Amino acid sequence: MQNGSLFSNWTTHFWIGEGGTDMAQGQAGIFRNPVLIEALWMTLKLAVTVAITTMALGLALAHTIARNKGSVLATVLGQVSFTPILIPSIAFAAAYIALFGAPIGPLPSLYGTFLLLVLAASAHLLPYAVQSGRSVLGQISADIEESARLTGAGFFRRMGAIIMPLAIRGLLAGALLVFVKIVRDLSLVVLLFTSTSPVLSMLAYRYAAEGFMQFANAITMVILVLCVIATLLAHRLQNRVQKWKSA
Amino acid sequence: MNPANGNPAAIAIRNVSKRFGGFTAVDNVDISVPQGAFLVLVGPSGCGKSTLLRMLAGLETPSEGEMAFMGRTVSDGTRGLVADAGGRDAGLVFQSYALWPHMTVAGNIEWPLKVAKWSKADRAARVDEVLGLLGISALKERYPAEISGGQQQRVAIARTIGPKPSILLFDEPLSNLDAKLRIEMRSELMRIHRATGATSVYVTHDQVEAMTMASHVAVLNNGKVDQFGAPLELLENPRTTFVATFLGTPPANLISVTKQDSGLVYDGLRLADAQRAKAHDGVQLLYRAHDIKVGDIEGQPAITARFEEAAPIAGRTMVTAFSNGQRLTAMADGYFSAAIGDQIRLSFLGEPSAVFAMTGERID
Prior knowledge:
The complex is a heterodimer of chains A (247) and B (364). Chain A has a single domain, classed as Orthogonal Bundle (MetI-like fold). Chain A is built from eleven helices and no strands. Chain A is globular, with a radius of gyration of 22 Å. Chain A is mainly alpha-helical and 247 residues long. In chain B, the strands form four sheets. Chain B has a six-stranded mixed β-sheet, sandwiched between helices. Chain B has a five-stranded antiparallel β-sheet with strand order 2-1-4-5-6, with helices on one face. The chains are: A mainly alpha (247), B alpha+beta (364). The A-B interface holds A 141, 143-144, 146-153, 157, 161-162, 165-166, 242, 244-245, 247 and B 57-59, 84-87, 90-92, 94, 96, 98-102, 111-112, 115-116, 143, 145-146, 159, 163.
């Protein structure tokens, strides 16, 4: 097989190869693995959901902190929203199992559900969202919002019509950060994951654990491509919105 | 200050104080103005005038006292904001203009009307109307970043008067404009005030704006109202040295004198009769710039001072000089100039306009 020519020993087997051959103990390529597509969608769904929820929550928290600057509330919120970053993901996941693994009153056990993954990931990545929300809001002067308040517009109207359009660029950047982090993340999902909620990083981990490094590497490539596409999309979106800036 | 016909004052500020921690920004302010008034709150930076305005706008809550618009209580020290910022029929023009950068000029003016649930046709008509009133119809589709500061100012005013508020609040609206534009916008604002008929409150540190625009002036100093009244009344009868020196162009002079025998003496020179000092031994005499003239005048007391600067004003020259560390402003006929540090003679024409105790309050 090894005849010295550069590409002669390259194979696409680990991507699209059929199962049952001599290669890799009869394992099929990753694109023939039915779990892959499911994991891909699950990962995307999780990442998008978490990016949106953390950014919405992060913006609301950042707004409260910015507009109540100096108060006890702002200080406490600022500190608490930063805490998750100090906790190792694995410990965070364990805590969430302990918290939601068993039914609480009328609430059913959340273990293994998509909801638990979203909850844990959102809480874990909240610091990134709050920090980017704070830096974005720092650039919007209080006057701009006060002038909206004087018109009689309520909180949500001000958020939707004034703050969001002005903050959208920074929010997209923050959302991208959260998205990429959750797509790559393993240590958080490894404990919360079940077969009903497979994600890409978990799939790569499983291949690697069984010694199929090439398959694991292929999944890693898929994750990388996903992140690159998300980055490019976010970049394009950032150029699309806030046209008034470039005009 | 309720008008005689029994109508409630358009704006009544009753014993309002505002404290931030241990710091008192506004201290027991009590003023009210009738409908259609143009109230100017004037004072140096940090005197509490902007805080007072923000309380009127509903952006801050008074710590004590009460504010009422047309007899309706809007803020209360004990109950907080009785009417929210949006619910008090008042519009505020910000010092920074605070235009929404992502909306066009027309969008900026239209949005408050949208919030107030005006119909589409009414909104379009009103936007065109206020654009025309401010003379900025051509800028309709531009974004705030694409127009000049003076134009942004006009947009900010147009946006504020759009929903036809009965009270207009201005927070140093002209301070970001160049001198020429400022004078232009001053008359523009007066025209809008007349056109809308709205009761206006105008905050400024520029006493010229106060003197030219106001129907009522409140001079604020360290959170307190030093004096409240018509502009000319304040100019002619200042009750404190602060008001006397803060208002008027060129600035008036305060000269510290001591009682000697039957006269009030400055640097060995008798300026006025000792009776004007009443029981005080040392007092401050108010001389307006036009009551001190450059050069000796037969029969009038004169001193020697060190020339500092000269500025021509309307065919005469305003001269600043120092005497014993005291800054004096005098007038010279025609154009006058000298080298810095030159010794010049200053003559006092007639009696001082007012006499103040050393602590600042007026005694004669």
